[in-house]
């Protein structure tokens, strides 16, 4: 990830802001949301969960979403719950340094040593066993759908709440009037979003469905120009690149060749910006592939016959 401005300014400042907001909530106890019914002598207030919150962060936000400094961590600590954080293998040293700062703050505040904990790796079944442990009250997770749903199933089985932010392909639907009037401008905006951060934001609009085959051709043509001109993206982990290669390979196996890109690049964990153009009928046939999220600079343009089919 680029140091400036992404990490050193934008994300670092966001992390500090949410930590300060959590500290404010601890001091004024606004998180309790106290409500009183004086007439009937009733009073309600939020209370701590009575156990630890397991916080698991993603690869793509090592500061603002980190298990030991992210929003989930802040919310859990502000509400006076212990935290057991899992470090992401993509940035273990960053997490270790953040954990050291958190431990120093914990010790300075006189909190028990177990109130902030962190571990770095485990087998999936060990993570599920941790969630089932009676000392754990809840899960906070940001990451892939596959891992999130597996952990949610463990929470459901144990009767514990889970807060999850998971993947989505974030499809964009372009009606015929917009497509005919400004196909190239739409392609510019869509391509920029697909390429943002190397295509490694959970908000990446991986699929764009365009009403009108001629308009869809215009969008695909302009997007191909932009993606071909883009330098190969640096991907965050070997796993991200492997999943991207697998997704592109599955589309090829279904009978499609990329309009541009499609290959890993070097040095390091790089990959070419890749575009596929698919007609709507085929997209329906391979729905699981066409609407599968894959981190990285991959976009799919789906040509839809008209507005009725778009709906």
Topology, element by element:
Blueprint (H helix, E strand, L loop, with lengths): L2 H26 L6 E3 L4 E3 L7 E5 L14 H8 L4 E4 L5 H17 L7 E4 L4 H9 L3 E7 L2 H14 L3 E4 L6 E3 L1 H20 L11 E5 L1 H17 L3 E2 L3 H16 L10 E2 L4 E2 L2 E6 H6 L1 H4 L7 E7 L2 H4 L1
Give a structural overview:
The protein is of the alpha/beta class. The chain is 45% helix and 18% strand. It has eleven helices and 14 strands. Strands 5-4-3-6-7 form a five-stranded parallel β-sheet, with helices on both faces. Strand 8, helix 6 and strand 9 (207-211) form a beta-alpha-beta unit. The longest helix is centred in the N-terminal third of the chain and has 26 residues, at 3-28. The protein is elongated.
Number of continuous helical runs: 11
Helicity range: 40-55%
Quote the beta fraction.
15-25%
Question: Cα distance, first to last residue?
Answer: 38 Å
Q: What's the number of extended β-strand segments? A: 14
Order of helices and strands: HEEEHEHEHEHEEHEHEHEEEHHEH
Rough outline: elongated
Rounded to the nearest angstrom, the radius of gyration is 23 Å
Say what oligomer this is: single chain
- In the predicted model, the low-confidence regions spanning at least 5 consecutive residues are none
> In which order are the strands of the major sheet placed?
5-4-3-6-7
Biggest beta-sheet profile? 5 strands, parallel
* Mean pLDDT across every amino acid position: 96
Which secondary-structure class do the elements indicate?
alpha/beta
């Amino acid at each position: 990830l680029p140091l400036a401005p992404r990490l050193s300014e934008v994300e670092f400042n966001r992390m500090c802001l949410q930590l300060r907001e959590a500290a404010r909530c601890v001091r004024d106890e606004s998180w309790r949301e106290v409500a009183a019914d004086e007439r009937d002598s009733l009073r309600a207030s939020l209370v701590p969960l009575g156990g630890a919150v397991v916080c698991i962060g993603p690869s793509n936000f090592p500061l603002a979403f980190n298990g030991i400094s992210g929003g989930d961590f802040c919310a859990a600590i502000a509400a006076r719950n212990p935290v057991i954080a899992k470090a992401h293998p993509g940035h273990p040293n960053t997490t270790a340094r953040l954990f050291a700062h958190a431990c120093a703050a914990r010790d300075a505040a006189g909190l028990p040593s177990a109130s902030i904990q962190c571990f770095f790796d485990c087998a999936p079944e060990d993570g599920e066993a941790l969630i089932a442990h009676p000392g754990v009250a809840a899960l906070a997770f940001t990451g892939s759908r596959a891992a999130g749903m597996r952990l949610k199933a463990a929470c459901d089985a144990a009767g514990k709440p889970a807060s999850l932010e998971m993947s989505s392909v974030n499809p964009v639907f372009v009606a015929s009037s917009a497509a005919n009037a400004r196909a190239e401008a739409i392609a510019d905006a869509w391509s920029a979003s697909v390429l943002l951060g190397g295509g490694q934001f959970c908000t990446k609009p991986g699929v764009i469905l365009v009403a009108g085959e001629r308009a869809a051709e215009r969008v695909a043509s302009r997007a191909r120009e932009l993606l071909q001109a883009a330098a190969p993206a640096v991907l965050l982990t070997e796993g991200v690149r492997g999943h991207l290669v697998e997704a592109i390979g599955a589309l090829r196996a279904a009978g499609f060749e990329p309009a541009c890109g499609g290959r890993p690049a070097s040095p390091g964990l790089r990959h070419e910006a890749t575009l596929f153009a698919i007609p709507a009928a085929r997209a329906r046939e391979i729905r699981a592939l066409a609407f599968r999220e894959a981190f990285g600079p991959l976009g799919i343009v789906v040509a839809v016959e008209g507005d009725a089919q778009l709906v």
